[in-house]
Amino acid sequence: MDWQVLTRELSLYLESQVRVGFFGSGVGLSLVLGFGVAYACYYLNSIAKKPQLVASNDRFCRFLEEYCPVVTETYYPTIWCWEGRVQTLLRPFITSRPQVQYRNELIKTADGGQISLDWFDNNDSSYYPDASTRPTVLLLPGLTGTSKESYILHMIHQSETLGYRCVVFNNRGIAGEELLTPRTYCAANTEDLETVIHHVHSLHPSAPLMAAGVSMGGMLLLNYLGKTGRDTPLMAAAIFSAGWNVFESIESLEKPLNWLLFNYYLTTCLQSSISRHRQMLEKLFDMDLVMKARTIREFDKQFTSVMFGYRSIDDYYEDASPCRKLKSVGIPVLCLNSVDDVFSPGHAIPVETAKQNANVALVLTSCGGHIGFLEGIWPRKCTYMDRVFKQFVQAVFEHGNKIFSM
């Protein structure tokens, strides 16, 4: 078959159909072509942009430019879904779900509870065949996320190709394990995270260790780092789509469209996550009232803030906001946010505070939404966030000595 002839005939046919549709003139084709050119110009001029790299430490900047160059390259969001809300909504459905075989471990906590860890040991690693020194990445999922989330699976897939080991910290009661005490989790209390980090480090004391947190997992990790400073086994950390100021995040999510698209759904997810533990939790909480919540704020007011002993929900939100602890972070941290993220509004990102800490670098994209960062025509296999994660963890594990002397 002559494909050139077929292509030419098809083009002539389509052109004739467009002309017929516009009363026999060439206006239709001109409009289609004109719209396409105008859209392409708008996309290239207003949508596709280099991220803003915010860092006060010149050495950290040079380190990122050399070993994590993706943070200085133009980010081209998927041309047909670059808007933040759309990226946020579509990512779970579009991106692939790499197959990962976990090894589950339940560890005990000081209060009698238990935490579920999912390990990807990567015992077939050819780069690091010695398990005792194999670099390890601790992964923290989002608000109601577990080791099954697509973004976690992608991080593990990226780590596997580099020869690293991963372990996923599932918050209490989320991953199918039973609650042994009437306590779940929140973004402000770092006790469980501290337990997990020291447990992982004690198992592999000679293995380099870093962590990556997504959304609420990133907030929890930042709050931990703000509390511990340099006194942590972690070499470095990567933070993705963290909510920096909880007051601003909640206000944004309570806008009518955002409530309809995200807030109500997440509230039902939170309620679902605790409903199967009702017999344990109703000892301390009015579960009927908790299950009537229609916003995250209402849920936190009736449940989360009460569980962790805060006098008011405002006290909890203040303590949970990482922007208040950023100055105290004592290890290298790379934070990726999109300024169009309705979960973490651009105006609430602590740019000026970040400039006051030499250990912190912010990467701010103009598009990407919340854990979206889709790119390519059909963004199924890899996102911009995946590429940032892969390059940064590799940079830390293989060239970290160049920034640890900062």
Provide a quick synopsis of the model.
The chain is an alpha/beta fold and 406 residues long. It has helices at residues 3-21, 27-47, 58-67, 84-94, 150-162, 191-203, 216-228, 246-253, 256-275, 278-281, 287-290, 296-307, 313-320, 351-354, 384-399, and strands spanning 52-55, 103-108, 114-120, 136-140, 165-170, 209-214, 237-240, 333-338, 360-365.
Polypeptide structure, described:
This protein has 406 residues and is an alpha/beta fold. Helices cover 43% and strands 12% of the residues. The chain has 15 helices and nine strands. The protein has helices at residues 3-21, 27-47, 58-67, 84-94, 150-162, 191-203, 216-228, 246-253, 256-275, 278-281, 287-290, 296-307, 313-320, 351-354, 384-399; strands at residues 52-55, 103-108, 114-120, 136-140, 165-170, 209-214, 237-240, 333-338, 360-365. A nine-stranded mixed beta sheet has the order 1-9-8-7-6-4-5-3-2, with helices on both faces. Helix 5 packs parallel to helix 15 (384-399). The chain starts with a helix and ends in a 7-residue tail after the last helix. Mean pLDDT is 92; it is low at 17-24.
